[in-house]
Design a protein that fits this description.
The complex is a heterodimer of chains A (327) and B (259). Chain A has 2 domains: 170 residues, 3-Layer(aba) Sandwich (Rossmann fold); 123 residues, TPP-binding domain (Rossmann fold, 3-Layer(aba) Sandwich), CATH 3.40.50.1220. In chain A, 29% of the residues lie in helices and 28% in strands. Chain A contains 9 helices and 17 strands. In chain A, the strands form 3 sheets. Chain A has a 9-stranded mixed β-sheet, with helices on both faces. A 5-stranded parallel β-sheet of chain A has the order 14-13-15-16-17. Chain A has a two-stranded antiparallel sheet with strand order 2-3. The radius of gyration of chain A is 21 Å and the shape is elongated. Chain A starts with 10 loop residues before the first strand and ends with a helix. In chain B, strands 9-8-7-10-6-1-4-5-11 form a 9-stranded mixed β-sheet, with helices on both faces. The relative contact order of chain B is 0.18. The interface between A and B is large, with 84 and 78 residues.
Chain lengths: 327, 259
């Protein structure tokens, strides 16, 4: 990679996500990506925390080997807004001579990072699954294709499919925290409310076990069975677009290219045919088990193990068998 | 009902973007040299998320009056997708002809030029195109214009010079209010696009499509993003068929999923 201009850009800047004073697990995974990239390119690794009263988030992130943690604390930043987040990120990127700016490819990162790239004239790679020091790898066409892309700009922006990376482990000396004061311009957007999806189960992208159902479940009531099985593994319940469209489960359980990407230790697909866009969201799971009556269902081509059987027999029998071993 | 929008006495001006993409059911294969997708036998269609954006634009115009313009960028074939949007109820089309595949940033800067000319109050777009899956253009456009944005919309309510939008985000629904003009990107569940009756297709053929070449727009089309090559994802796994629930339980135990 070659650089022009007077100041040499020489840092990886990661925008950290946080909730209730805690950095998100996906941020720790993104740090792993950023740490690898910074070591490859011999760049510094910096973190950025944006919000109001977020000092404690910084305290928790000092152990992960970043050179510096920038802290932009302001009452105007209490609620996330794409405009202000993009403004702050681009200012801090400039301040620390960032060459690569990245964050998790969740709905927040996907929302504000393109604005960062527009603001600073950077090329951007979305949903990155790998970086070799020059090119980013990312999927296109619902995961049918992996593209190696090169960004022809001095500064580069990326959102990272962080579930593919292990959470960072503590490393080296503690990071230096640098509070920065910025005048936050007024936004044209106002936060009204957040309606949280109530669930006692783990978030899909973070779950170690995901039990998913598709059209074959037939109705909302039958999902209770999958919930029971998921609870035995302390896992999450997922669904296909067909099940979500039929309103058997809430929208945010949708797994796939247009829903959530998951990468659990164990993924079980019950009554799921295996449409390309669903498989795109599950194929990084360690073990995939498919249960489907139709032996020609494409899901079997994505699965490690398959049972050509009626899920209404297999799932209750499996629940009973596991409950037995627990007792 | 006509509402004054953005302090002006006229009605709402809506701009919707549509992209011509490979059909979602097409089998996507890479050319032997990895330079691109093998397009032989591939069907093209309007990007499904854009179709939802068009539907929403039609509904807003039906409720509030105003005008709905649809814009596309690409080859002359994109007229097909514009015609489809016109048949759904858009009033007129604009096609910016451009050679080859453009990156999202170039598309956004082309749209800036269209917006400067058209002066819309609301720009509706699909949240992503199902070919490149970038999910960038709406946000890029909003930043270049320094406008507010509401991405991943599942409900849109226009009130005077503001719009209230439900956004589908990780963990729930975020409700925001954005001052017009603004950019909104459509999530799958915003609406179900209407079926187009045959007479509407004939009517759409009479509607106007203005065509411009990207070379007339005075923008730098050198891409920021270059696709070096395409690769096939890791090859399909061999699926081991289990006969009984005990076999399945064995697999779970062996891999430490259960004890």
């Amino acid at each position: 990679m070659s650089f022009k201009g007077e100041t040499k850009v020489s840092a990886v800047l990661i925008v950290a996500e946080h909730k209730e004073g805690m950095p998100s697990k996906r941020t720790l995974r993104t740090i792993t990506f950023g740490r690898d990239a910074s070591e490859m390119l011999k760049y510094k690794l910096n973190l950025l925390i944006i919000g109001h009263k977020v000092e404690e988030v910084a305290e928790q992130l000092i152990i992960y080997g970043a050179n510096r943690i920038y802290l932009v604390n302001d009452p105007a930043l209490e609620k996330y807004k794409a405009e202000t987040w993009a403004y702050v990120t681009s200012k801090v990127a400039e301040h620390c001579n960032a060459a690569i700016i990245c964050t998790d490819a969740g709905t927040t990162g996907r929302d504000f990072m393109p604005r960062v790239s527009a603001r600073i004239g950077a090329g951007m790679a979305s949903g990155v699954i790998g970086f070799d020091g020059e090119c980013f790898k990312r999927e296109m066409w619902a995961g049918s294709v992996v593209a190696r892309i090169r960004l022809h700009t001095e500064i580069q922006v990326a959102t990272v499919r962080s579930t593919l990376f292990e959470p960072a482990t503590p490393a080296g000396n503690s990071s230096e925290i640098e509070p920065l004061h910025l005048d936050i311009p007024p936004a044209r957007t106002r936060f009204i409310e957040f309606r949280k999806t109530e669930s006692k189960r783990p978030d899909l992208p973070e779950a170690n076990v995901v039990i998913s159902g598709g059209r074959g479940l037939g109705n909302a009531e039958n999902f209770r069975m999958l919930e029971r099985l998921a609870d035995l593994f302390k896992g999450a319940v997922g669904a296909t677009r067909a099940a979500v469209d039929a309103q058997w489960v809430p929208n945010d359980l949708q797994v796939g290219q247009t829903g959530k990407f998951v990468a659990p230790e164990f993924y079980m697909a019950c009554g799921i045919s295996g449409a390309m866009q669903h498989v795109a969201g599950i194929k990084n799971s360690k073990i995939i088990v498919a249960i489907n009556k139709d032996e020609n269902a494409p899901i079997f081509r994505a699965a490690d193990f398959g049972m050509v059987a009626d899920l209404f027999e297999v799932v209750p029998a499996l629940i009973a068998a596991i409950e037995n071993t627990i007792e | 009902m006509n509402v004054p929008v953005n302090g002006k006495e006229d009605t709402v001006k809506i701009l919707v973007t549509v992209k011509r993409v490979t059909d979602a059911d097409s089998i996507i294969e890479i050319k032997p040299d990895g330079s691109g997708i093998d397009l032989s036998g591939i069907q093209f269609t309007i990007n499904p998320f854009d179709e939802i954006a068009v539907e929403e634009g039609v509904r807003i115009r039906e409720a509030h009056g105003g005008t709905l313009t649809v814009v596309s960028i690409g080859s002359e074939n994109c007229q097909n997708e514009i015609r489809r949007a016109l048949a759904m109820g858009a009033d007129r089309g604009i096609l910016i002809t451009a050679p080859g595949e453009l990156d999202s940033d170039t598309a956004a800067r082309i749209l800036v030029k269209v917006v400067e000319k058209e002066q819309p109050d609301i720009i509706l777009m699909g949240k992503q195109a199902i070919d490149l899956d970038d999910n960038q253009v709406a946000q890029l456009l909003a930043e270049y214009l320094r406008w507010g944005q509401a991405c991943f919309a599942t409900r849109i309510e226009l009130t005077g010079n503001k719009v209230v939008v439900d956004r589908e985000v990780d963990g729930g629904i975020e409700v925001v209010e954005v001052i017009l003009p603004c950019v909104i990107s459509a999530e799958l569940r915003l609406n179900k696009p209407r079926h187009i009756p045959l007479p509407a297709i004939f009517k759409a053929n009479k509607k106007q499509i203005d065509m411009f070449s990207v070379s007339e727009l005075d923008i730098d089309t050198a891409p920021k993003v270059i696709v070096q090559n395409l690769e096939v994802p890791a090859k399909p796994k061999l699926c081991y068929i289990l006969e009984t629930v005990s076999d399945l339980l064995e697999v779970l135990k062996k891999n430490g999923i259960t004890t």
